[in-house]
Design goal:
Number of domains: 3
Strand order of the largest sheet: 5-6-4-7
Structural class: alpha+beta
Helix content: 40-55%
Order of helices and strands: HEHHEEHEHEEHEHHHH
Radius of gyration: 22 Å
Number of strands: 7
Number of helices: 10
Strand content: 5-15%
Distance between the termini: 29 Å
Length: about 260
């Protein structure tokens, strides 16, 4: 996790706390991976202030800091509930390409680009997505310089298979479920630690660990419309537990931050 994204998470968790004192900010940054103690955290505070991520008020030990919202490019935070509730027009968007063996590197680059955007691999060189895909394809073409054999079109009707079967074939829901169950297995213990922790650095570390586990749980999940989700899908349980964790974390953080 980049420190920029980490700051935004801590800003959200501590949104009711206003400005952070220097001591509190140092402790929170100690909980961020890469900060091995207060000297390292103090150096990071100086760097963040210099780069405009935090704003200082006052001097010395009495200084306070405000995290500054910036439109800096970063990995966007996904919104599972909004995606599950997103209306579906019953049309599949299909992307296909045909690259010869002599262009293996181009084929691998294209495959990685489509996979990174969580499109579903229906069969070799045939990818699907339930929503408009043109913007995604144009982004890939601009970034990767994909050749002319790249093609996308809409499928308005299925036969010989169902929408549910397309979704089950195109995405690895076995692995998605495994990752989401792994997240669930650690949440009860994490919540207990949050409720009993009296150390800000440790609390920040718990927030970081939970976020990494949550991010991993959804890392392969395309967040399909609800009607396409398979039976036994665990994403909704993960999202509910994540929201409960964040609420407990926020309450505990506020209780530990001096007013």
């Amino acid at each position: 996790m980049r420190v920029v994204d980490w700051l935004r998470i801590m800003e959200e968790l501590g949104e009711a706390g206003g400005c952070l004192s220097r001591a509190v900010l140092l402790k929170l940054l100690e909980g961020y991976t890469g900060c091995a103690g207060p000297l390292r955290a103090d150096w990071l505070v100086q760097r963040l202030e210099r780069d405009g991520w935090i704003k200082r008020e006052g001097r010395g030990m009495k200084a306070t800091f405000q995290i500054i919202a910036r439109d800096e490019p970063r990995r966007p935070l996904r919104a599972p509930r909004a995606e599950w509730a997103r209306p579906w027009d019953k049309h599949w968007r299909v992307v296909t390409f045909d690259l010869p063996e002599v262009r293996r590197k181009d084929r691998q680059r294209l495959w990685r680009a489509l996979r990174a955007r969580l499109l579903g691999l229906l069969q070799r060189s045939v990818w699907v997505w339930p929503h408009d895909v043109q913007a995604i394809l144009e982004e890939i073409i601009e970034a990767e310089g994909i050749p002319e054999c790249f093609c996308g079109f809409e499928s308005r009707r299925l036969f010989l298979c169902t929408d549910a079967e397309v979704a089950a074939s195109a995405w690895d829901f076995v692995e998605i479920t495994r990752r989401q169950r792994a997240y669930q297995e650690g949440r009860a213990a994490a919540l207990r630690l949050v409720k009993t922790s009296g150390n800000l650095a440790r609390l920040a570390g718990l927030a970081r660990e939970e976020w990494q586990a949550y991010d991993h749980a959804f890392s392969l999940d395309p967040l399909l419309p609800g009607e396409l989700l398979p039976k036994g899908y665990q994403g909704e349980t993960v999202q509910r537990q994540h929201e409960e964790f964040r609420q407990q974390m926020r309450q505990r953080l506020i209780s530990l931050v001096p007013s």
